[in-house]
Specification:
Blueprint (H helix, E strand, L loop, with lengths): L9 E4 L2 E3 L5 E3 L5 E11 L3 E8 L9 E3 L5 E2 H15 L3
Antiparallel strand pairs: 1-4, 1-7, 2-3, 4-5, 5-6
Length: about 90
């Protein structure tokens, strides 16, 4: 199966892994933008991705499954632009 994301793609996350309190996901107030540094196809669960954050947010030193990634960063920007076009400065 073909991967959704490639090395160098900018993506965004709406949940990030933390090792605190025995590990788990946290949900930041705003999406976290990252870049795909490496991808790996696994026989059991599909594609996993090593990501590098484009901000100071710690996203953990783990691989993220394709289903953990919310989408391409370009999609996030387009959605925000549409919101401003619709509602403006109200």
């Amino acid at each position: 199966m073909k991967s959704k994301y490639n090395v160098g793609d900018k993506i965004y996350l709406t949940k990030i892994w933390t090792p605190k309190d025995n590990g788990g996901y946290i949900y930041p107030d705003h999406p976290v933008v990252a870049v795909v540094l490496r991808k790996q196809d696994t026989p059991s669960l599909g594609w996993s991705y090593h990501l590098g954050p484009l901000c100071n947010t710690d996203i953990g030193k783990v691989m993220y499954w394709e289903s953990d990634i919310a989408g391409h960063a370009d999609d996030l920007i387009d959605a925000e632009e549409e919101l401003w076009k619709t509602w403006g400065d109200r």
